[in-house]
Specification:
The protein is of the alpha+beta class. The protein has three domains: 77 residues, Alpha-Beta Complex (Aspartate Aminotransferase, domain 1), CATH 3.90.1150.220; 105 residues, Arc Repressor Mutant, subunit A (Orthogonal Bundle); 128 residues, no CATH class. Helix content is 33%, strand content 9%. The protein has 13 helices and ten strands. The chain has a three-stranded antiparallel sheet. Strands 4-6-5 form a three-stranded antiparallel sheet. Strand 7 and strand 8 form a beta hairpin. Helix 12 packs antiparallel against helix 13. The radius of gyration is 25 Å and the shape is globular. It starts with 5 loop residues before the first helix and ends in an 11-residue tail after the last helix.
């Protein structure tokens, strides 16, 4: 086992001391301690791979996961030992752990997959249900088997415990005042969700705790809201349930990433992934602006090496404004290449002239979504715009 450097230890300690961190926060720490921007994504994943190879010896793992309520990616260190009490550590008492588990069970047993329960329902959680045969009809004659600490766990203790669980990110208070799972639960309970047969999202195969269920009551298909966006945002994508074929009631928000219909590939069936995005291509040195004039529909984005400005109008539609690639500054174009190279290194191989030909027709949906989020959050740089 190779030894870890102080940089690896810093990354691990940041997650252990602060708890799960948003991807942007975790990457910011990584960038500061490595001071390496030339190949940041590849170096980032190399660091994670090395860290996990060492953590595996103590049954820990540094893992990425999503908050199912807003789709935000987080990173955290998780204990892979299948022991529910070890996941909460020694801070909580046995009745508090039973209270937490009762709330989790109430949330995942909801067939509507709302991913939350009311505050009142949470406080009414019965701890005796966590004792074998403690909540059934036959348990009336064996009430003595229920620990006294469970029977004496008062409402005020439940309220304090609920506040503490929310503060520690095991639970969360949703925008409508309900109680849902916290980011630490999404991180730690992945195997527990599977062992308790929580229906998985049909797109990402993670537990569909907060998801949209199929309208067909006899169909168990669930899809996370952010996965629905990826699956149905293409104009030609059939909005039907992948399990039973029932029409899926989904309206694409205007802020979602769309591709012009004339740029979509033909022949895609209704059960295939969304059509591939338009092709972007970097122009070789020596070409003039006239080389791109009079061309057909916008299916390429050409970049001149000296100015790094584009000649075509392939667009990404953001939440509040329309971004044209020709508005992007030079450093942004390089960042786009790094996003693509993260999962598709072969698509950014330099050719004989030292230029990079970027073919995004083969990009996976994760890369396109990362690319969309990056461009959407940029402010167009008007002084680079080619008229």
């Amino acid at each position: 086992m190779s030894s870890l450097s102080w940089r690896h230890h810093t990354l691990i300690q940041s997650l252990l001391s602060r708890g799960p961190l948003k991807e942007s926060e975790f990457r910011s720490i990584f960038t500061k301690i490595t001071a390496n921007r030339s190949d940041n994504d590849r170096l980032f994943h190399d660091y994670l791979k090395k860290i996990n190879s060492c953590l595996a010896y103590v049954q820990f793992e540094l893992r990425a996961f999503r908050n199912q309520y807003d789709g935000t990616v987080y990173y955290g260190v998780v204990n892979n030992v299948a022991d529910e009490q070890s996941k909460l550590g020694t801070k909580y008492t046995v009745p508090q752990i039973a209270f937490y588990k009762g709330i989790i069970e109430a949330i995942i047993q909801d067939d509507t997959a709302k991913g939350s329960i009311t505050n009142i329902d949470a406080l009414n959680t019965r701890l005796e249900n966590q004792v074998p045969n403690g909540g059934g009809p036959e348990s009336q004659g064996v009430s003595s088997q229920v620990p006294a600490a469970f029977r004496n766990f008062s409402l005020s203790q439940k309220e304090r415990t609920l506040d503490e669980l929310v503060r520690d990110k095991w639970l969360c208070a949703t925008s409508d005042g309900r109680i849902g799972l916290g980011v630490r639960s999404f991180l730690d309970l992945r195997s527990w969700f599977r062992s308790n047969d929580v229906p998985a999202c049909d797109v990402c195969n993670e537990a569909g705790v907060k998801a949209d269920p199929c309208s067909n009551g006899s169909c168990s298909v669930r899809i996370h809201n952010y996965c629905l966006t990826r699956k149905f945002s293409q104009r030609k994508a059939e909005r039907i349930c992948p399990g039973c074929g029932t029409q899926w009631d989904y309206t694409v928000p205007k802020s979602e990433f769309v591709v012009h219909e004339e740029e979509l590939q033909n022949g895609n069936s209704q059960n295939e992934p969304p059509p591939e995005p338009p092709r972007r291509k970097k122009q070789r040195r020596g070409r003039t602006e006239d080389d791109t004039s009079g061309s057909g529909p916008s299916q390429t984005c050409t970049v001149k090496s000296e100015t790094r400005t584009t000649r075509r109008s392939s667009r990404l539609v953001g939440a509040s404004q329309r971004h044209v690639l020709q508005d992007l500054a030079e450093e942004h174009l390089y960042e786009i290449l790094q996003i693509v190279a993260k999962r598709n290194p072969k698509l950014t191989t330099p050719d004989g002239d030292g230029e990079i030909e970027l073919d995004v027709s083969a990009l996976d949906s994760e890369s396109m979504w990362d690319l969309h989020d990056f461009v959407r959050n940029l402010k167009p740089k008007q002084d680079n715009k080619v008229t």
